[in-house]
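lol forgot to send this yesterday, sorry. struct tokens for the thing we talked abt
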């Protein structure tokens, strides 16, 4: 039987072939399919003819795959799963649901519990989509959106897009408070500090996750020692343990100050301007998940509120907010 150059796989015949191998018998496979053994045998013969190669060794008492049959069986399940997944994706596209969706969240606004609740909600509502979440630091948010295929960003730095392919809507501002541990040596002279005294102690900063573009330098005075950590949670605990000073978003700092774990420093000559935050998505994107997230944000839905809690200023409605 010469190998043909054109092959057309009958997926139903392929499923029958796998069942015959699994059962080890045409009769058993026929029974499972509610068909006659001759019908199953005909389907396997048709598959062999379409591929131009023998797939099964038939004897009086047994049936077994040939070398080619074993090879096909090893690949067949992947082919069938791809086929099912492909048509599921097409169905999703027809309904406007994105086949895959990556939410990029700024590290300053990231809340693990809130992320899990949002994912569970989106998964139930848009079950066919492959959902992913990426936590990024400052410029890394835009970096992931532009270069890594991010679908929607919560906490894109600035109220303006850095790429014309994306559109932004303001969420609010991050207002900063300079903090340290209650036992930090900088407090020996009180909470009133200046640049010279601050420079004598390390500052704890989070590493910008941008890899394709130049990341934004973290706040640090000239000549000041810097401790770099990967995320906000680690930064907070470093401050609590007295490893260094640094700025935190005001609502977050206020909670730790109220718990007497941190102290606010007053430095009149050291100012850090509020950082504007937006949500961002591709221009003209009309995917249902992106539209739904935008709807939740504009409604200040309880699923979104934890992400916005570190912000002050103008919310997504353009109204004054003091979250």
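and heres what i got for the seq, position by position
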């Amino acid at each position: 039987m010469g190998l043909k150059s054109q092959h057309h796989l009958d997926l139903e015949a392929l499923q029958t072939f796998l069942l015959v191998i699994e059962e080890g018998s045409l009769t058993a496979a026929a029974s499972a399919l509610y068909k006659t053994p001759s019908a199953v045998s005909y389907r396997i013969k048709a598959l062999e003819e379409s591929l131009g190669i023998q797939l099964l060794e038939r004897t009086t008492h047994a049936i077994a795959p040939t070398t080619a049959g074993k090879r096909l069986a090893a690949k067949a399940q992947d082919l069938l799963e791809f086929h099912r997944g492909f048509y599921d994706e097409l169905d999703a596209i027809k309904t406007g649901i994105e086949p895959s969706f990556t939410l990029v969240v700024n590290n300053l606004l990231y809340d693990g519990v809130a992320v899990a609740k949002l994912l569970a909600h989106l998964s139930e509502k848009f079950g066919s989509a492959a959902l992913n979440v990426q936590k990024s630091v400052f410029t890394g948010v835009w970096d992931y959106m532009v270069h890594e295929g991010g679908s929607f960003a919560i906490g894109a730095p600035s109220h303006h897009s850095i790429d014309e392919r994306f559109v932004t809507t303001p969420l609010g501002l991050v207002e900063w408070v300079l903090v340290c541990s209650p036992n930090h040596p900088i407090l020996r002279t009180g909470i009133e500090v200046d640049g010279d005294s601050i420079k004598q102690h390390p500052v704890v900063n989070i590493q910008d996750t941008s890899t394709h573009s130049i990341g934004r330098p973290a706040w640090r005075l000239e000549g000041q020692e810097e401790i770099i950590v990967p995320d906000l949670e680690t930064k907070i605990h470093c401050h609590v343990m007295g490893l260094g000073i640094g700025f935190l978003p005001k609502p977050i700092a206020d909670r730790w100050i109220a718990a007497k774990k941190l102290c606010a420093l007053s430095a009149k000559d050291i100012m850090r301007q509020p950082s504007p935050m937006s949500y961002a998505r591709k221009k003209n994107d009309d995917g249902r998940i992106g539209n739904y997230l935008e709807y939740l944000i504009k409604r200040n839905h309880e699923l979104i509120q934890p992400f916005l809690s570190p912000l002050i200023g103008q919310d997504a409605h353009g109204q004054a907010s003091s979250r």
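The CA atoms of residues 205 and 219 lie 7 Å apart. anyway ping me if u want another try
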